[in-house]
Amino acid sequence: MKTKKILVLHGPNLNLLGKRELSLYGSFSLKKINAHLKKIARAQKYTLFSYQSNVEGTLVTKIQKWASKVDGILINPAAYTHTSIAIRDVLVAVGIPTVEVHLSNIYKREPFRKQSLISDVVDGQVVGFGPKSYELGLHALIQTIEGPRKGPKERPKERLKT
Ligand code: DQA
User: Is the distance from the beta carbon of residue 79 to the nearest atom of ligand 1 less than 6 Å?
Assistant: First the structure.
């Protein structure tokens, strides 16, 4: 059986995890989180690739290039969650299973963080559990990949028209 693949994408400043606003984001480094996710994925016969960028266009290009090579995307777009139509558009364009995660509960924070520009085009969202959000998100993504696929009418591409 061919191993399935997952791409984990981290947006700006997440390379500072473990040093940045510890009470909000926890003390785990990104390296540690990625290694943990890799282990969980491997146990489920998945190969996991992770990538972090502080640059919006680089994240967009990464999604364009990798979407045909992976079975799903786990993404924390960080600050771009609230601003990036480009990331929203590329997720709609590629239309593969995608789960959004946030370490903090963005709905309990400043008003400008309460809006995610991707929440209605992804399969689901996990927020507020610190590094555990990634783990829960990974399990949810694998279930989405393994489960019955939604029909074309329910895919994000179609939802955009409404
Ligand atoms: C974040 C929440 C965003 O609002 C913020 O800009 C981040 C991290 C989170 O994981 O809680 O950088 O995505």
Answer: yes
Sheet holding 72-76, edge to edge: 46-52, 4-10, 72-76, 98-102, 124-127
Region for residue 113 given its phi and psi (left: phi exceeds 0; alpha: psi -120 to 50; beta: otherwise): alpha
The full length of the chain comes to 162
Q: Atom 1, ligand 1: which residue's CA is nearest?
A: 78
- The tens digit of pLDDT for each residue in 97-139 reads 999 999 999 999 999 999 999 999 999 999 999 999 999 999 9
pLDDT tens sequence across 38-61: 999 999 999 999 999 999 999 999
3-class secondary structure, 81: helix
Q: Global pTM? A: 0.90
Q: What are the chain's domains?
A: 4-146 (3.40.50.9100)
* Single-letter amino acid code for the residue at 56: E
